[in-house]
Design a protein that fits this description.
Oligomer: single chain
Helix content: 25-40%
Number of strands: 23
Strand content: 15-25%
Radius of gyration: 23 Å
Largest sheet: 10 strands, mixed
Length: 582
């Protein structure tokens, strides 16, 4: 390493407010202009060369908001250092903010008031540099505020790309790396990984990163660069908000053309059938795992109270098939990005009138909109450079809350995990509905990835991202795959937390380290009580740490100790992180 000098209630969600959220609040948090005189009074000694203003923080779905916080926009990493040192000396905390496209309280916990001594550091205005670091093997240097869409476009122009990415293009790179963001991809049967690519998280592509950390020698925070071989750097690869990264160098590879075929004609009973049962009695083998074997890149979106999921299957296809429509830009599902009227009306009625019993109707409307939309927009079968099929979610989509988990297992057990989970989900949803309770009005989303194998970056001695949900388990070398499970519902839905708690307890019990293991998805909802997410102390204090303890190290406590040493004054902290890293 080197140095360098609880949810809003339903009453808060009117139909008009919901539509405004879906259509208008797409540019991130709103800035509230304030004069420099007020800043001078509230922030004595704040660096004069750094722009500062009042701001509203709002997470993706609006369940966590904080009005009137001070925010600043450094133009370069050295200014970030100035800001962090000011915060340390003044007793403030610093929270990096990108696009705020997340659910969990890793940035700002609920209840953070305008008078809190919390400074938001916006990365998007200034930390957006992009340059090609090397050509063979290829690497790109990128600022933490670069969005994934901008990064992928930069790579595409140079014949480069990634195997998989998250669906939203507005995510910043820094935010994505903080929570080991991922896409959906494993090798198809007979497929070999291309140099510079990974089937794991974006964090697994990092060759080096630069962070603002405490330096004992100078008695201040400084910029320090960590190579992938560095033990401290391994903890920073997915730091969960307990650090601040300004820049990274990523390993990348040759771009690929992908075909994405959408299907809505396979029932959940067949797609999610138990292993050895094709679900239809005809031996066609149209199970989730069979599509995974054929293409390696699969996503299932299963709307609540419907029988036929929306299945997306990507495959590496160098030449455009005759039936495929060529796409030259991302976001090719406008019916999903721009909420159809019937879906908006139903969601608005549910939210404004507490008509939660309309959940089955909303699920049916969403499925119908997808089925008809795929045909109307000629997007059932699309083909083009990877970026144009991998990015498909705009901020104008229906905004819902979500839980999230990664189940580590062997590739041969994927269908078993999917089948057991979907059976449990269906049974509990049916049982709740029989009682007149409708906790889920969104969808189940299922993706599958590989794990974070450090050898993928081609650097001898590279270390695994220590806190990534995709970190391999040394005590289970046969586990090479993760099944990602998310359940989405409108914010404020009654009984949602209790339902999520049941799902979580099922996952932690069924996949407890025998043939599979559950880890939480950092950016989503987890640690449920019957009333709230991120509140179950048993999950926070026992289940989460245990999921990283494989006897090989670093375990949870050792990783936490590294974060503490790099930030002993806990400048990068909040009330929730104090519970996660006591």
């Amino acid at each position: 390493m080197t140095d360098r000098p609880r949810s809003e209630g339903a009453s808060a969600w009117s139909r008009r407010g919901f539509l405004l959220t879906a259509a208008a609040l797409t540019a991130g948090s709103q800035a509230l202009a304030q004069g420099r005189a007020e800043a001078a009074a509230d922030l004595p000694g704040f660096p004069a060369d750094v722009d500062v203003h009042r701001s509203v923080y709002r997470n993706w779905v609006g369940e966590i908001t904080a009005a009137g916080l001070w925010a600043c926009a450094p133009r370069e990493p050295d200014q970030v250092v100035e800001v962090v040192n000011w915060a340390w000396r003044q007793g403030w905390t610093v929270r990096a903010r990108g696009s705020s496209h997340g659910w969990s309280p890793l940035t700002i916990p609920e209840g953070t008031g305008a008078g809190a001594r919390v400074l938001l550091v916006d990365t998007v205005p200034g930390l957006t540099g992009l340059s090609l670091e090397s050509g063979d093997p290829a690497a790109v240097r990128a600022g933490a505020g670069v969005t994934l869409e901008t990064l992928l476009g930069f790579l595409e122009d140079r014949g480069l790309g990634l195997t998989a990415t998250p669906a939203p293009g507005d995510l910043t790179l820094g935010g994505a790396l903080a929570v080991d963001a991922h896409g959906t991809a494993v090798p198809a049967v007979g497929e070999s990984r291309l140099p510079g690519h990974t089937y794991g998280s974006l964090s697994n592509l990092v060759l080096s990163l630069t962070a603002v950390v405490w330096d004992t020698g100078s008695g201040s925070y400084v910029l320090r660069t960590y190579d992938r071989e560095d033990a401290d750097g391994a903890v920073l690869l997915a730091h969960l908000g307990r650090a601040l990264i300004t820049e990274v160098v990523l390993r990348v590879g040759v771009n690929t053309d992908l075909r994405c075929v959408s299907r809505t004609d396979i029932s959940a009973a067949e797609l999610f059938a138990a292993p050895g049962d094709d679900g239809n009695g005809e031996g066609e083998g149209r199970t989730f795992a069979s599509f995974l074997d054929k293409s390696g890149r699969v996503e299932a979106i299963w709307f609540a109270f419907t029988e036929y999921p929306w299945l997306k299957v990507w495959s590496v296809t160098p030449n455009r098939p005759l039936t495929s429509r060529r796409v030259t830009s991302p976001y090719n599902y406008p019916f999903s990005d721009n909420v159809p009227t019937v879906v908006a009306d139903l969601a608005g009625r549910i939210l404004s009138g507490a008509a939660w019993y309309l959940a089955p109707a909303l699920g049916a409307a969403q499925f119908t909109a997808a089925t008809l939309g795929l045909t109307a927009t000629l997007s059932r079968d699309i083909w083009g450079p990877s970026k144009n099929t991998l990015l498909y979610l705009r901020p104008t989509t229906l905004r819902v809350t979500a839980n999230g988990y990664a189940v580590l297992t062997s590739r041969a057990q994927v269908q078993r995990v999917v089948s057991e989970f979907t059976d449990f989900f269906r049974e509990r949803l049916t049982a709740y509905a029989a009682q007149g309770r409708f906790p889920v009005n969104g969808q189940v989303e299922i993706r599958v990835t590989g794990l974070d194998e450090p050898s993928d970056v081609g650097r001898p001695g590279a270390r695994v991202p220590a806190l990534s949900a995709l970190r391999p388990r040394a005590d289970h070398p046969e586990w090479d795959t993760a099944v990602w499970l998310d359940v989405l519902t409108l914010p404020g839905t009654p009984d949602a937390e209790a339902f999520y708690r049941e799902l979580e307890r099922f996952l932690l019990t069924a996949y407890d380290g025998g043939y599979a293991l559950t880890r939480v998805e950092w950016s989503k909802g987890w640690a449920y009580t019957d009333e709230a997410a991120w509140a179950d102390q048993e999950v926070l204090g026992a289940a989460v740490p245990a999921s990283f303890d494989d006897g090989a190290g670093p375990d949870w406590e050792q990783a936490a100790a590294v974060l503490e040493r790099l930030d002993p004054h806990r400048v990068y902290d909040n009330a929730f992180l104090k519970r996660l890293f006591p």
